[in-house]
Amino acid sequence: MPAPSDATLWPAFSGLIPPPLKLLKDVIDWTHEQVVAFQVAPERLILIACHQVFPTLLQAPLAGELAFLSAESRLLAHGAEPLLVQASLLEAGPCAGGGYVTADILDGLDRAAAGSTARLVATARARGAGHHGPWLVAVAIGTILKSRLKTGRDARAGDHLILTRPIGTNPALFSENRDGYARVVAGLSDRIGPWLATVPGVHAMLGIGERSLLATGSDMAGSSEVTVNLEAARLPLATDLSHSAGGSPVWNRALNAVRRQNGKLPRPDELTLPELLLRLNEVNGGLLVAVDPGVSEKVVAEIQRRSGTPFARVIGRISAPVQGGRQVVIHNRPPEGGADDQ
Questions:
Q1: Is pLDDT above 90 for 8?
Q2: Domain 7-148, second-level architecture
Q3: Residue 326 pLDDT > 90, yes or no?
Q4: Where are the domains of the chain?
Q5: 160-331 in CATH: which number?
Q6: Choice among 109-113, 273-277, 282-286, 304-308 with the minimum mean pLDDT
Q7: What is the 3-state secondary structure (H, E, C) of the chain?
């Protein structure tokens, strides 16, 4: 896929982002993350992120809230402070295919009448949203010092892996529990990202977004040329899923959702719910953070304090790459000595 050009990425928010802008094409993987970076000063970057809600999902509960949260989270995952998050109904899905923000998105947002998410979604319903539009598109703009920008490229052997929020935000898991899903969505904030970007010992950070924890771990492993070890038994699960065992209705829904997403699974009856969920795409996953083991406990404690929830925890570690081996290794049980023993 060709890299975006300065011409296709010129923003319409001239009052917010002064020219000249220098597009940094190799800083962030826009194909996966739908984020682009501009340099506006020697040490200052502007990030622009995009999230689109497919027409068939516009009538889903909380679709608008998730659009805003997802666009903002794409910035927070790199440590940026959001300046503006705005949504608009567009006739096409401009984030699709290229994975980056085009001038059409920003022009469309500039032209859009101000209105709440509820009004935007209501308008979409009134138009009879279908496969051909309209799309609810959220765009977030943020800023960060270049030296603080976090990506998935700098994970180091020996690092602990921290997950900031529980997995299990896919709506397929809550088909009979809409109130439970609303509680899960209410906690989908990655506001911890800008603070993490300032912490010494935080080496790499990726947002899970709409992908699975397994896919995100694979991205970090490939970008940093390391092996990512995930401890399934350590994974925090969304509150409404935490007591669901193998063979339960939630486990069956998770298995069916993973099969629809990934096809056949080897020995699925032997997989625990966490082992299924780490393979399942999230709606807006948390942050996967590679941290020096000397500070990981303090970082987890501070994330929990700032978020007011107990979910953040060490879920694995980084090890040296194994030639010809897998980039991500899933362990069914935690090692007895802790996350860094094997």
A1: no
A2: 2-Layer Sandwich (3.30)
A3: no
A4: 7-148, 160-331
A5: 3.90.650.10
A6: 109-113
A7: CCCCCCHHHCCCCCCCCCCCCEEECCCCCHHHHCEEEEEEECCEEEEEEEEEECHHHCCCCCHHHHHHHHHHHHHHCCCCEEEEEEEEEECCCCCCCCCCCCHHHHHHHHHCCCCCHHHHHHHHHHCCCECCECEEEEEEEEEEEHHHCCCCCCCCCCCEEEECCCECCCHHHHCCCHHHHHHHHHCCCCCCHHHHCCCCCEEEEEEEECCCHHHHHHHHHHHHCCEEEEEHHHCCECHHHCCCCCCCHHHHHHHHHHHHHHCCCCCHHHCCHHHHHCCCCCCCEEEEEEECCCCHHHHHHHHHHHHCCCCCEEEEEEECCCCCCCCEEEECCCCCCCCCCC
